[in-house]
Amino acid sequence: MNKVIKYVFIDIVRNRIVLAYTILLSIISFSVFSLEDTSAKGLLSLLNLILFIVPLVSIIFSTIYIYNSSEFIELLVSQPLMRKNIWLSLFSGLSISLTLAFLIGAGVPIMIYQPNATGCIMVVMGCLLSLIFVAIAMMSAVSTRDKAKGIGAAIFLWLYFAVIFDGLVLFLLFQFEDYPLEKPMMVISALNPIDLSRIIVLLRLDVSALMGYTGAVFKGFFGTQSGFVVSLLVLILWVAAPLAWSVYKFDKKDL
Amino acid sequence: MITIDKISKQFGQLNALDDVSAQCDSGECIALIGPNGSGKTTLIKSILGMVVPDSGTILFNNKSIAHDCSYRANIGYMPQIGRYPDNMTIGQVIDMMKDIRRSHTQIRDEELLEQFDLKSILGKRMSTLSGGTRQKVSAALAFLFNGDVLILDEPTAGLDPVASEILKEKIIKQKQAGKLILITSHILSELDDMVTQIIYMQDGKLRFHKQIEALRTETGEIKLSRAIASVMLQN
Which residue of B has its CA nearest to A65? Predict the structure, then answer.
């Protein structure tokens, strides 16, 4: 299994997109930090950019990569290798390279300008988001043989998590504004990994005071040690569930 | 060696394989013949575990191949269209395959690598190769690990006459060494001096599985192409 990870990793590194992604992230991070007067403010601006770019690049790159390696996958499947291991190796190769790109591109600047717990949490969130969207990409790539359909599904999923979901939540909030929605909102936020990681990082910044009563309820849960652990577990579940489903599907797929 | 027991496979509306059973023993060179879309490649892919049949079982050395992968260490497979990662060189692909199959190492057979003169172009990228050179790489890889079973899907399609002659000689040599060889081909004339048994497929069904001698005496034709043609006309 490690051998396959090695070849996938080498192949991705040779493909210059991940390098470009690393450079893009580091340009963005350094310029955001040097534009804002305090680095805490810089972190907030960077958070919004990262929550936008990392899922987008992870999901699109991974989906296209898997479709483009269909011949490589076919070659591997006819060898004495378990299908499960082939698929998990692909996941590992993609995750390792994208996480590494994030760590170098965004992790290093964050650690230079904000070498504290909040900075660390943001780096961890970025890595987890990379893993989550690689897993979601593998799910959309395994479900259809049609490349255009698969990439379309990946883009739509990203759009859903990054934009549409928030719209739906706002809609719900306005429809049910007469009811106390603070508690249900916490459950709803668990349904979107991007929102969940945004909340986790936001609550560590001073701006959470601006979020009113909902912010206070959120802080009462996510701000605590156990709340943090629960939300981390939810994010890990967001990696494991799509991945497990895609492994199950790949195991039965005809090539 | 390979026992195929009543396997069926549907792709949407199409019955790619319909209740196919066959017994393939070592030392035989079996030709899979049939019109386009008759299920030959699907049958081969089922044996390799690339296609999972809807029903039926395939036994390799009396062990079911479902949820198993180790049996593939005994198989050398040459696909119809060899597709490899584009930005790897020939050398890297070969090294990778050696690396992946290292734990199953038998004695490696690099004869084809030399005969096809691939060793001099190891540094070429796969994306720059012509179809024929790709086929050579596929063939060299199929024979490289000295498997007990060789599965060759349209092996000589796209090869130049010299290379296809080299490959045919190699196949005959392997047959004499007691290996099981499964070949699909549309060029029946080149099968004449290689094969010992014929499996004829049509519309996903196995029409017959015969010794080539039996087929020859039945149809009264010496040439395989004529024998098959007369069978096809009878149907």
Answer: B85
